[in-house]
Amino acid sequence: MTSRDTMRERARALLASREDAVLGLSHALHADPELAYEEHRSARRITDLVERAGFDVERGAYGLPTAFRATAGGGDLVIGICAEYDALPGIGHACGHNVNGSASVAAALALAPLADELGITVKLLGTPAEESGGGKVDMLREGAFDDLAAAMMVHAAPSDSVGMGSLAISSWQVAYTGRAAHAAAMPERGVNAADAMMIAQVAIAAHRQQLRPGAVVSGVVTRGGDAANVIPAHTTADYDCRAASSEELAELQARVRACFEAGALATGAELALESVGNDYADLRQDFAIGRSYLGAARDLGRRVQDCDPTIRGGSTDMGNVSHLVPTIHPMIGYDCGDAIMHNPEFTRYGVSAGADRAVLDGGLAMAWTAIELASDAEHRARLLDRLAARRTGARDGAGRPGRP
């Protein structure tokens, strides 16, 4: 066997020795879902496990109580592995973050004892609030990713794929304030906040014909009024804007904001528009690292689709990471019947035998990918060169993620 093959088999054996702990973690996260920025028990479960395995752990890292940093090894090639563990309101881990986070822990545990031989530092980052808020964006601002040569994670899904992109997104809370009045006795004294919202929605609907390909505007009215015989003084809504790139998102935000301003202008209501959490950038996966992952996952017997990056799914704050660091975000699949993600039925499959296999295979495929990045001279030089260029602020493109 080659030295790479030997390292692979050692990583496999190391993960096998931790299998019960890793799967126990996945099941514990699944049974005890916590929402964005509130994942205290989830973060503690993970940090306790990796600390016992010898990692140097900092809890509450980067100014976030439920974030953490856990490191092993001291090599110059720093491989970041992102662990997600937040859940969705009312439906638990319907996006499979118990699988995501546990697979990342599996990869870190398989790599840590090999780190010094490989000349790498394994940096497991606990990244809260992916579903709402964008913990990775908060952590980016605090320098969590500054020293990374590469970043990776896998995400639960109905099937395996690598290379797919994602949409940039922004979330808004919208509120109109008018003036209440009796709807029959003195309607002329009122300022109808519900009409303002209706006009904005009609304007958005009319604008859909001019949306760029891939752009999506979606929303829900959360308060429309209180009684039919009272002109509504207050209406509220939650709205998302999505676009193929951060640049196109900025264009879309300007147009949709104008639609909401039109509602205020037409009725005389006062508009308040507030951003919710961080804007997410589009995901730009690194093709060279993606090919390494693809080979590793197929060597494990998985059927992985190699996707066109112009095919975009939902949105993720891993997109923001990918604009700074060469990044991969493959999907790791398991049988979930007809269930779709962000649906209670998908939650039910998160502790199935298939989900458990996804945790272990996803973790080992990432570990094998890291081994290749470290042991292949071309991979290693490319990543270290990009890191050096990023640190010196090079503007010639050398610091951007790889292209085909």
UniProtKB/TrEMBL annotation:
Q: Which family does it belong to?
A: Belongs to the peptidase M20A family.
Kindly indicate where the leader peptide sits in this chain. Answer: none
Any GO molecular function: dipeptidase activity
State the NCBIfam families in the record: amidohydrolases (TIGR01891)
GO terms under cellular component: cytoplasm
UniProt protein name: Peptidase M20 domain-containing protein 2
* InterPro entries associated with the record: Amidohydrolase, Bact_exopeptidase_dim_dom, Peptidase_M20, Peptidase_M20/M20A_hydrolases, Peptidase_M20_dimer, Xaa-Arg_dipeptidase
Entry-linked Pfam families = M20_dimer, Peptidase_M20
Q: Which gene encodes it?
A: amiB1
PANTHER family per record: PEPTIDASE M20, XAA-ARG DIPEPTIDASE
Q: Which SUPFAM superfamilies match?
A: Bacterial exopeptidase dimerisation domain, Zn-dependent exopeptidases
Q: Which residues form the Peptidase M20 dimerisation domain?
A: 171-263
Q: Which organism is it from?
A: Streptomyces subrutilus
Which domain of life does this protein belong to?
A: Bacteria
Listed GO biological process terms: folic acid catabolic process
The record, for Gene3D superfamilies, names: 3.30.70.360, Zn peptidases
